[in-house]
Design brief:
Layout (H helix, E strand, L loop, with lengths): L24 H4 L5 E13 L2 E13 L6 E16 L2 E15 L11 H5 L30 H7 L1 E20 L2 E19 L1
Antiparallel strand pairs: 1-2, 2-3, 3-4, 4-5, 5-6
Amino acid sequence: MRDRPLPQPLPAAANYGDGTVDIDWLKTVTRSGQQQQYNLAAQGGEGKTTFYVSGGYFKQQASTIGADLTRISTLVKVENNPSPKLNISLSLQPTYTKENGPLSNGSQFGNPILGAFFLRPTQNPYNSDGTLNISTATKDFQSVFNPLYIAANNIHNLGTFSGIGNAQARYNILDNLKFTTKMGIQYQNPERIAIR
């Protein structure tokens, strides 16, 4: 399940007229990070019941290729007053987080930043037809793999669904004496996906 776009070929300026290549690998495996965040909320009620609902979407793209974070969160609160002395409230907060990350300690310098310091500027990340170069010939990637290919195909995802629920009941016995009972539950289900 690939959800990362393949890196685009370098501009023609990277190929010099004499057939040689001069690649800035650190610049090739890094980018300008971007962040998006959207939130929406609504509240209302009628009579003895009120509610509050909110939702949020957050996406952050790291400055290293192949690394990003997405989070979808919601919050639902409902409150009811069956009688002047009794108040009941309930809240639910489910959240889903998905994190894509580059290899941190994989073999053959799988991390793009680490690999960039061991690759020669004459190693072309692309073949003549625009596909990613994964040749292991002496002049290409003999010991350190192409980090662009690793970032596009060696997928390491961590998806986590978590939910927090709270319920509360409060009863006013007297003006200055209240009885409150609370109950809470937390659920978390992480799932790691690795595709090589």
